[in-house]
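Supplementary Methods, section 5.1.

A reviewer requested that the exact input to the structure prediction be made available. We therefore reproduce it here, unchanged from the version used in the analyses.
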Amino acid sequence: VQDFGPDKPAGCEGKIDFLFVISRYSGMAYFQAQLLDAFPKFIDTIEAKFADFDYHIMVVDGDPLWGSIPCGEMCPVQCVPGYPCNYTPTTCDTKIGAGVVFPAGGDAANKPCNIDGGHRYMSKGQTDLKSTFACAAQVGSSGGPWMGEALTAAVNPSINGPGGCNAGFLRDDALLMVTLISNTFDVPMKPFGSAGTPEEWAGAVLAAKHDDPEAVVMFSIVDPGQPECDPVDRTCQMVKMFPHRLLTDVWADDYGPAFEQATELVADACAGFVPPG
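The structure derived from this sequence is encoded token-by-token as follows.
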């Protein structure tokens, strides 16, 4: 268990909100499988570092569309095995930044993810956490890669407040760890890239955490980790605005070592995080 000494701030008692922003772009099935392989060990390592590990875990994808337009047009014939032709998506299913509870489309789980409590995020005590996460994170490869837009929407006060799709996900006294994974750049042109700028995305995250950079850890499995961001890699540019950050290669054979580094970032950030109030 991580020991911060007698002056341990309250935020280091293991209360962490994990936000996974996952692209649905073509070819993402392989990278989502890599993430699912690494997640169980990551959670076990975090749990070992914090005696009172209290988590919220939410997955959002990079597209407001639910399912697949071609599959929907082919229904009731299933265009991919298990495609849920009989399901009517809710308003939150079709809202960018809302937690994923029923991924559908090519390479997706194509089933409800059985998240406890009727939330769009998993919380401490979630039944079969690792399998539930594996369901939600298998968002498929028949959608968009709008990472910045999805992130900004996911941390918006209106979606996290009472009556919002993600009501209760973000907690003032919790550290926020954002993991982004995509196989393409979030380029600076619509409709191929997100609305807004890296500065605006970073500003939205900071505003959600009371402008405290010590309250945020950014982990990007998008950029190959070069010293400088590609001019069109706006996700990389945004991540580098945060002091607690890690960039790793999406093509790595195993994401486990990078997640191991990320657990150290969480511990470091927690040491400097003092919850508001």
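Residues 208 and 227 are 28 Å apart (CA to CA). These observations are discussed further in the main text.
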